[in-house]
């Protein structure tokens, strides 16, 4: 079933450091929304980089193109009636603003999935921070490449300070009709 026009943001754009919890929260949120009967698509950075964006590395230009492609796909999916969850580090404010610019006011919600660097380094679910500290992965976000935190995200979730269920509940509230009352 297509998303009703007043059902809150069509796109939830999760941004944050590697290990902050974007993949974990996007999958849990998708389960929660599907349990409500919604059709949901998840665009995760790791998955996109295995296919559509397999030609891109991690230079600023490559990341900008990665974000641009994800935003355009999200636009198409939202137009097809899906709720779309994007989970990308998307470290640059400018590129996130360009992504937002593809949507009408109220259609796009930026969710800053935050955890302090010390916490994500301690989690290090893929061992990437350890490798980056050893100099094996250049331009690693948070180590030797920048992360520009959102200044006015619709939601900021500190995953060092809440459970996955609590975080999902907050995002589900954002997806209530009242939160999207100004959506066209
Ligand atoms: N140099 C460097 N910096 C950051 N991340 C790196 C890098 N090299 C590989 N990886 C892995 O790629 C995943 C991030 O891809 P994204 O597409 O989300 O990045 S970006 O939005 O284009 O910046 C990221 O996945 P997540 O941990 O899920 O964020 C890493 O597994
Ligand atoms: N509150 C929380 N929210 C999300 N992830 C959490 C939380 N607490 C601990 N974690 C753990 O942190 C790690 C986050 O990894 P992942 O979801 O792959 O992050 P990202 O996609 O941002 O790189 C997982 O191992 C997850 O179990």
TrEMBL record:
Record's catalysed reaction(s): adenosine 5'-phosphosulfate + ATP = 3'-phosphoadenylyl sulfate + ADP + H(+)
**Sorted alphabetically, which keywords does the UniProt record give?**
ATP-binding, Kinase, Nucleotide-binding, Phosphoprotein, Transferase
For this UniProt entry, the molecular function terms from Gene Ontology, in alphabetical order, are: adenylylsulfate kinase activity; ATP binding; sulfate adenylyltransferase (ATP) activity
Q: Does the keyword Nucleotide-binding apply?
A: yes
Q: Which Gene3D superfamilies match?
A: P-loop containing nucleotide triphosphate hydrolases
EC number(s) from the headed UniProt entry: 2.7.1.25
Q: Which GO terms describe its biological process?
A: hydrogen sulfide biosynthetic process; sulfate assimilation via adenylyl sulfate reduction; sulfate assimilation, phosphoadenylyl sulfate reduction by phosphoadenylyl-sulfate reductase (thioredoxin)
Q: At the top level of its lineage, which domain of life is listed?
A: Bacteria
The EC class name is transferase
Domain APS kinase: where? 10-158
Which residues does ATP bind?
Answer: 16-23
Pfam families the UniProt entry points to: APS_kinase (PF01583)
Pathway membership of this protein?
Sulfur metabolism; hydrogen sulfide biosynthesis; sulfite from sulfate: step 2/3
- Give the positions the UniProt entry annotates as the active site: 90 (phosphoserine intermediate)
Q: Would you identify the family this protein belongs to, as annotated?
A: Belongs to the APS kinase family.
Described purpose of this protein according to its UniProt entry: Catalyzes the synthesis of activated sulfate.
What is the protein's given name?
Answer: Adenylyl-sulfate kinase
Q: What's the source species for this entry? A: Inhella crocodyli
Q: What is the lineage of its organism?
A: Bacteria, Pseudomonadati, Pseudomonadota, Betaproteobacteria, Burkholderiales
Name the encoding gene, please. Answer: cysC
